[in-house]
Structures are given as C-alpha cells and as structure tokens.
Write a structure and sequence with these properties.
alpha/beta, 2 domains, 7-stranded mixed beta sheet
Length: 314
C-alpha cells in the first residue's frame, strides 16, 4: 500500500462533520503533499465534527514538483479549491493600497477563505502540522468573546521576553512607553532587532514589534474580525507579510482598534514541524534532503495509521 492509498482509506473512515458545524479551515499549501495530508487527516480525526469546509489554497508556484491531486480526491466532499492569481512567497509588502486590489489581496495567505467563508469561525493552519487532540473544540471553548485565539507572540525574538517583563499571558498588560521600550531593546537586543529599522513606533509602541497571533494554528471569529479588516475595515489582511512577519500588522491593527486576542498553548494538541522535532518547517523548503525526510516520515505515519507495520523514527 502507498501513503496516497492509505490516505484514501483513512478519509473514508473519518466521522462526518456534524450538522451546523461552525468552522471553516484555511490551509495555504506550498510543497509537502504528504505532510499536508497528515495535517488535514489528523485535524479531521480529532476535530472533524466542528469543520464545515476546507479552503485548500494551492500556491501558484511549488517546490520539488509537489502535486496534490490525491489530497483533493481524498477530501473531495469537503474541499473548496483555490489557486491564487499571484505567487507572493514571503516577500514583505508595506504599502496598504495594494490590499485594495482584489487579485493581489486574494493572493495573500488565507484571504480567499477569509472573504468567502459563510461560517462564524475560520481556522488557519500550516501544512506541516500534526494534530493530536481536539484543538478546535478547545479553541471554541476558550475564545470567550475575543476576536481570535491561538498561540500569541514570537517571544523567542523579543527583548521584553528575555528581560522577563512580558510573555503571551501578559502581553495585554505590559505596555511600555516608547523610551522605556527603546531602553529595554538596547539592554536586551532581540534576535531580529536590525530588521526593525527605526524600531517601535513612537506613537504606538504597543503591541510590541514581535507580537502576533501565530497563524499556524489559529481560530478567528469572523463576525468580529471581518468588519475590522481589509477590504471592509482598516486593519491589513491577516495573512499579509506587513512588518516583521505574517500577521504582525493585523495583530497590531486590531488591538489598536480595541479588539483582544486570547493566548492558547497549542502544544498539548498540535506539533508544528513535527517531522523535524517541532522546529517549524520553513528551513526544509530550501533543503531537499530535509524536505524528502519529512515527506518520508509523513508517508510512514499514514501507513501506520492504516494498520501497516511501520516504525516512524522521530
């Protein structure tokens, strides 16, 4: 049996979503077809009862000849397929007027699903996740009036975290003024400080430069977020690489509009970049050996889930 055949069998045995499911899933896909298959299968295995549709957004450019036909066939009843007009990659765009152009805006990560979904909630996921529990049930239970919920902060890059002043549970309370933050950044240089240019804004130094909702597993209440975000509101799109990283400017914009985002530790429910020890998956996209190793491990996982005798080496 091949991993592709195993996926087809596994999907047939998944429970169907319950009537009235309130969550649509948005997944932007760049490479890693077998890891993508594991992401969707493991999510539906544990949280499928909450899921209505999967917006499968296949980037216009793909590495290493990646193809996803077998995934689209296996999940055919749940997938809404979209191929963006443009390939934007990870290039930052700082001009907000670009977001007024529909063909550009819908080429941003998750944006097509953001504008097309009819459900109250949108779950964004990277395509190299392994879900190990009912993350959607827990996120829905924990969102509690916030505009979004997920893992907050790129604290591993942040001066305030190194100094012990801030963390994902305190980001709403820790609000230094401009001079205090500049002093802190000098004493505790962040890992990406040189990328900040002039540093934090004098007018609004909060949220801190590395604050964001990490988009690899995040739940957004579209009934609150959509009106605040382009093309309907002033916040830049959630998937825009505007500032230091994807989602940073959206997070800043909605918080300054008065919204709140709840921090949720996803580690009991999900592993990001699980084929390389949870180190994230960006590096493998330029390293064919690492990329192929990840795909092999994902294939082994699917075969093992299907009952084959396979030993997965982590």
């Amino acid at each position: 049996m091949t991993p592709e055949a195993a996926l087809k069998t596994l999907v047939k045995n998944l429970p169907s979503g319950k009537e009235g499911a309130s969550v649509d899933v948005a997944i932007n896909v760049y490479g890693k077809p077998l890891q993508t298959a594991v992401t969707l299968y493991s999510l539906l295995k544990h949280s499928g009862r909450w899921v209505n549709k999967i917006y499968f957004i296949e980037e216009r450019r793909q590495p290493f000849g990646a193809r996803f036909d077998f995934i689209r066939e296996a999940f055919a009843q749940r997938i809404v397929y979209f191929r963006p007009p443009l390939w934007l990659g990870v290039r930052p765009f700082q001009k907000t007027w670009w977001y007024k152009l529909a063909f550009f805006r819908k080429s941003l990560r998750y944006q097509y699903a953001w504008e097309q979904s009819k459900q109250p909630y949108l779950f964004t996921t990277h395509n190299d996740m392994l879900y190990q529990g009912d993350i959607l049930g827990s996120l829905l239970n924990g969102i509690d009036g916030n505009t979004a919920i997920g893992q907050v902060g790129q604290c591993w890059n942040c001066s305030a975290f190194f100094a012990g002043c801030c963390d994902p549970d305190r980001y709403l309370q820790y609000r230094p003024d401009y001079s205090a933050l500049k002093k802190l950044m000098k004493q505790w240089p962040g890992k990406r400080q040189n990328a900040l240019g002039g540093g934090p804004g004098k007018k609004n130094p909060w949220p801190l430069p590395e604050c964001r909702l990490n988009e690899w597993a995040a739940l957004i209440d579209l009934t609150k977020a959509r009106d605040a975000t382009h093309p309907f509101g002033p916040a830049v799109p959630f998937g825009a690489f505007h500032g230091l990283d994807v989602g940073v400017q959206w997070f800043r914009d909605v918080l300054l509009l008065g919204h709140t985002v709840a921090h949720f530790d996803i580690s009991p429910f999900a592993i990001h970049g699980w084929t390389n020890g949870g180190a994230g998956g960006h590096g493998s996209l330029s390293d064919m050996e690492q990329y192929n190793d990840g795909e092999e491990r994902a294939g082994q996982f699917l075969l093992q889930e299907c009952g084959a005798q396979v030993n997965i080496i982590f």
